[in-house]
Amino acid sequence: MVRLGLNGDSGALITLRDLGKTYHRGSEELHVLQGINLDVDKGDFVAFMGPSGSGKSTLLNLVGGLDVPTTGSVTVAGDEITRLSGSRLTAWRARHVGFVFQLYNLIPVLSALRNVELPLLLTPLSRTERRRHVETALSVVGLKDRAQHKPRELSGGQQQRVAIARAIVADPTFLLCDEPTGDLDRKSADEILELLERLVDDHGKTVLMVTHDPRAAERAHAVLHLDKGVLT
Amino acid sequence: MRFLPLLAANLFRKKVRTTLTVGSFAVALFLFCLLVTIRGAFNQGVEAAGADRILVINKTSLIQPLPLAYRDRILRVAGVQHVTFANWFGGVYQDERNFFAQFAIDHTTYRDMYTEFVVPDDQWEAFVADKAGCIVGAATAERFGFEIGDRVPIKGAIYPGEWQFNVRGIYHGRRPNDDLTQFWFRWDYLDEKVPSFAKGYVGWYTVRVAPGQEMVPVSRAIDDGFANSPFETRTQSEQAFMASFVEQMGNIELLMLAIGGVVVFTLLLVTGNTMATAVRERTGELAVLKTVGFTDPFVMGLVLVESVLIAAAGGVVGIALAKLFTLQGDPTGGMLPAFYLPSWAMAAALGLALAVGVAAGLLPAVGAMRLQVVQALRKV
Question: Which of B3, B294, B380 faces A105 most closely, judged by CB atoms?
Answer without folding.
Answer: B380
